[in-house]
Structure formats: structure tokens, C-alpha cells
Amino acid sequence: MNLTRLVRYFAISTLCLAAGQLSLQCAEPIRALLITGGGSHDYKNQKDILTAGISARANIAWTISYDGVDDATHEASIYSKPDWWKGYDIIVHDECYGKVTNVDLVQHAAVAHSNGVPAVVLHATIHSYRFAKTDDWRNVLGVSSLRHQAARPFDVVNLKPENPVMKGFPAKWHDFRDELYEIVKVWPNCTPLAEGLGTNDSKHPCIWLNTCGGTRVFGTTLGHGNDTVKSDVYLDLVTRGLLWACDKLDEDGKPKPGYGPKPK
Q1: In Å, how far from its chain's centre is CA 244?
Q2: Domains of the chain, residue spans
Q3: Residue 208, Cα to own-chain centre: how many angstroms?
């Protein structure tokens, strides 16, 4: 190969490599729907903390459905729509509707995930619809809980440090003032990843992975207060959980190519 051909070969190779890297950087963003609202939490600010924090860590395009009603009996408006989940790659539930018992609404909320749309379920979502006479929502969550302990700082112990979702999470993390939910049942397809150390030597799963009809669900009961939600440990964790649910997380706990944060 003469010098001219050699130079041309390396020039073409460099262009192809650059094009490949650009293609990876420009992958279509994950289309995420955040459903939030209800009582007892600062959802007005937490919706922005969550979406901005996760977008700084992953390639996400957000739609936010926020009902600014501080009422645990409120029925989220988005669930009144047929096929409300269509057009999204993942649903992030961060809602507090603990006194809603409308079985039709609960089943309509859950059916998106039995139909194959992955989910992230955060904090008070686990208590939402807990008195409804159907297991559809609990099957999505992967756990059952009826109450939480008094808000206070507590330790979270990493049970599965080898799991990609937990890589980068401390062996023991001292959470800010938060609520430890008492888990009364872990469902068959649920894998606890961490547990919170509660009062009277109690321990409860507080981070987990679940599958619902083969659909991936990441869950955590952590995230009551803004100090927790805006912390790097929490935002890193929820980002990894979201990417795992979408099958966009590699074995090292990093976004797969094209799904990291957008280049600045």
C-alpha cells in the first residue's frame, strides 16, 4: 500500500469512527412519563429535581403529568385517558394517592405495565391504592406495605453490590430524614437490593427489582424529603434503576452507548 492510499485509508477510518461515535451520542432519547402529585410531599419541586437530575445522567425526554392537588383521595387525571401509556418507553410513578380505592382506576393504572411498559415506582407510590380490593397494583410494585415508620435519618445497607443497579451505591448509606416503609410482603418476582435499618432492630427492603408479566420494574421506598431526592446517591440510584428497567444499563452500572447524558 503506497503512502497516498495509506493516508486515505486512515482518513476514511477516522471519519467512520467519528460517525459511529456521533451516532451513539445522538441515539433517540428514552421517552419517559413522570406521573406525580397527591398529598404529604413537595411534588411541585420534586418533579423538577427528579427530571433535571436524571437528565443530567441519562438521555431522557420527559413528559410530566402533575396534578397539583394536595389530597390523597384525588384520582390522577391521566388515568382517565384510554391507553394513557402509549408513546412512552417507561413510566415513572411518584404519586401519593393512598386513599384511592377505585378498582377500575387502579387496574387501568396497572395494565400499562402488564402490557409491557417498564416502570419506576418511588416512595409514596408504594402506599398509593393500598386499600383497593385488587392485587393488580401490588403485582406491579413487587411489595406490599401499609404503613411507614416515623421520619428520621436511617442507614441503608447494600445487599447486592454486584448488581448493576447497585454498583456505585455505598455499602452503607446514611439517608437524610426519610420514611422507612414497613414491607409486609415481598412478591415472588421481586428481588430486594437493599434494606433500611428501622426502629427496634427492624429491617425492611427499600430498594428492589421486580418483574410483572416479564416487564421490568425498579422500585424504592426512599425519597420522602427534598434532601434525599436531590442527593447524588439517590439520583444516581434512580437513574440506574430507570436504565435497567429500559434495558439500557450495562453490567458495570453505566448507561449503554447512546443513553448517557447528552454532550454539552
Answers
A1: 9
A2: 28-245
A3: 10
CA 78/CA 64 separation, integer angstroms: 10
Instruction: Specify the DSSP class assigned to residue 152.
Output: B
Q: Architecture of 28-245 per CATH?
A: 3-Layer(aba) Sandwich (3.40)
Distance CA(101)–CA(103), nearest Å, equals 6
Cell (9 digits) for 25: 451520542
Per-residue pLDDT of 115-143, as tens digits, reads 999 999 999 999 999 999 999 999 999 99
Residue 175, judged by CB atoms within 10 A of its CB (0-12, 13-18, 19+), counts as buried
AA identity, residue 54: I
Name residue, grid cell 384511592. 100
Beta bridge partners of 143: 186
Of 17-31, 92-106, 174-188, give the lowest mean pLDDT range. 17-31
Distance CA 7, CA 23 (A): 24
Distances (CA, A) of 238 to 24, 79, 100, 101: 23, 24, 26, 28
Q: CA 153 to CA 126: how far, in whole Å?
A: 20
DSSP-derived 3-state class of residue 233: helix
Does position 13 have pLDDT exceeding 60, yes or no?
A: no
